[in-house]
Amino acid sequence: xxxxxxxxxxxxxxxGEDSLKSLNEELxxxxxxxxLVYGGGSIKKNGIYDQVIRILADNGKTVSEVPGVMPNPxxxxxxxxxxxxxxxxxxxxxxxxxxxxxDYAKAVSVSTYCEEDPWEKYxxxxxxxxxxxxxxxCVLTMVGTGSEMNGGSxxxxxxxxxxxxxxxxxNVFPKFSILNPAYTFTLPEYQMVAGFYDIMNHITEQYFSGxxxxxxxxxxxxxxxxxxxxxxxxKKDPANYEARSNIMWIATWALNTLVACGKTTDWMVHMIxxxxxxxxxxxxxxxxxxVSMAYYRHICPYGLAKFRRFAINVWDVxxxxxxDAEVAEEGLKRMEDYMNELGLVxxxxxLGVTEDMLEQVADSTILFxxxxxxxxxxxxxxxxxxxM
Amino acid sequence: xxxxxxxxxxxxxxxGEDSLKSLNEELxxxxxxxxLVYGGGSIKKNGIYDQVIRILADNGKTVSEVPGVMPNPxxxxxxxxxxxxxxxxxxxxxxxxxxxxxDYAKAVSVSTYCEEDPWEKYxxxxxxxxxxxxxxxCVLTMVGTGSEMNGGSxxxxxxxxxxxxxxxxxNVFPKFSILNPAYTFTLPEYQMVAGFYDIMNHITEQYFSGxxxxxxxxxxxxxxxxxxxxxxxxKKDPANYEARSNIMWIATWALNTLVACGKTTDWMVHMIxxxxxxxxxxxxxxxxxxVSMAYYRHICPYGLAKFRRFAINVWDVxxxxxxDAEVAEEGLKRMEDYMNELGLVxxxxxLGVTEDMLEQVADSTILFxxxxxxxxxxxxxxxxxxxM
Lengths: 388, 388
Known about the structure:
Strand content of chain A: 5-15%
Radius of gyration of chain A: 20 Å
Mean pLDDT of chain A: 96
Helix content of chain A: 40-55%
CATH class of the largest domain in chain A: Mainly Alpha
CATH superfamily of the largest domain in chain A: Dehydroquinate synthase-like - alpha domain
Order of helices and strands of chain A: EHEHHEHEHHEEEEHHHHHHHHH
CATH topology of the largest domain in chain A: Dehydroquinate synthase-like, alpha domain
Number of strands of chain A: 8
Strand order of the largest sheet of chain A: 1-8-5-4-2-3
Number of helices of chain A: 15
Largest interface: A-B, 48 and 48 residues
Distance between the termini of chain A: 38 Å
Low-confidence stretches of chain A: none
Number of domains of chain A: 2
Oligomer: homodimer
């Protein structure tokens, strides 16, 4: 059953090989001062930076910059961006990069005119935004997070050992996002496959919850099957436009609020993964892959019907002559094989987690009231140990 | 492959049993003068009219009305609505009804300030809108058309024997739509199942085109499976909230532009069905069901791979030991069985089409450049004859 909900997604998307030129349609809608935020400089090597700067100049914009946005944007970097945005009274924040850049742009957007410490207000306490927000636009160069069409923003506080995501309302969604699948071709394989698993996990986090018959589950099964198919092609042939364009589109719809409409969700793999990220600074998607199998095997007996359905509808397991538990486990085994095939990190040791860190990681894990099996701190430690 | 496209859908949806009260959130955003458009009066019997009028009064609105919007809204009715909207200088058009009411509201929205004959400009010539549009909101009481979240509007001109749909841009999309599945419970079975097939056909019109591997096709397979499942339940138990809520949600996503992103589409069942509607005034969904099997069997050999995929992924046909054509036909046969099970009209005689009308219906059929098998006028006559 679909519970009651409101759906609104105002982000305009420009998708395709020529989509960067759409900046010319969007820029005139905003004032003259643009804050350009980007990461480690790969956009300078591949020429995207120069193209963006030229379009900004053609549109008469005054540009200030925040370069060096790191994969897990920190609270110190957030403060720096807010200072620059305020000093320059920027009218638009343009993120050019992956999910971290988009997340960061949204964090700066809501935090610049926040009258108290934005980490405390918007991340630690997750309060509603009640100050002016600066409009955000995105040019996406990596896929996975879905940040290009949602209100999510994840910020890491290394001192507090916390990595916290806040899902803001639709006034914080990017006003527009530009998606060119070809921009994703040059990403190193490790980051590429980590992004693929981030997408898959966004879907399974929302799928493995609830027992109702729900159209959202059917949509997610379709997205998963398309993702499995295209990611296998992209692993072998990263410059396959067909596969990369499908993956880019799946990433957007996996986490732009649609598939969560009218249903409960889980998100505990992300909560444990983010805690690992806060302690190790490991690549986000790999923190998810490393704990997923232990987590899903832990909750499977409590959501058996859904895990059985997952095995049959997503992994084509033939249920004949098997118990529900056997069918469910065969589905999880096929998922595990697929993850190994992609080359994902399948244990947390490889991410730098040591035995003596487990208690601290568990302390950093936010516990949600999930549907199948609400976790205790002890459960988290058990899952972490099984992921070593 | 996903071709280049732009996606933008600004309609805000309020979904669920209490969603009507969301009118209180939306109404303050618009001026004082509201034009209420509705159909034959069922909303007066079931109390929805009184509830809406009360909320409009509570929000201090001055209300003018266009009652009697018919199932296939006519050009004469359009002129009447434009006159009333102009005389009352309305700030918002509120449609309360099914797809015809929503379509009609959008037609009045673009036509009221059109300086020439809006039928000629926006339907016969399908020109872009270059005059002010009046904002539209919808309270949906029937599902099928998807009109609550798109820019489509179909108007019938009985004199010209033409029924033409124009897909307007996102400035014509409803600003908000209120979707309460319980409002759909009391619809007579004939209209209910016609709506179910309208939804299915919206999906298949977009599915049966293209040979590329495309995420949109996977999403459509998910929507179709959910629709088949829930419509079988609703046929037996029309007040089943779970089934009706899923169907309402599928209808919206079947035709709000998402599944067409990056792919070619077909739409010839709708073109032939609309021509039949122009000559008979038959229920829209039944004009589609009556010609579908003949049409799909006509184009199947030219899009065999997709029809094979449809059979396997949507209708669970086992392909082992069968030719592609056999697999494809088995899928179409299961679809035909399902349509008979719902009680759809499966021939055009039952809709009032006689042998001597076939030439004229063919003349009223707009021929699109479709992908698998572009139709000639002779093909249309052949399909009509096979549908007798």
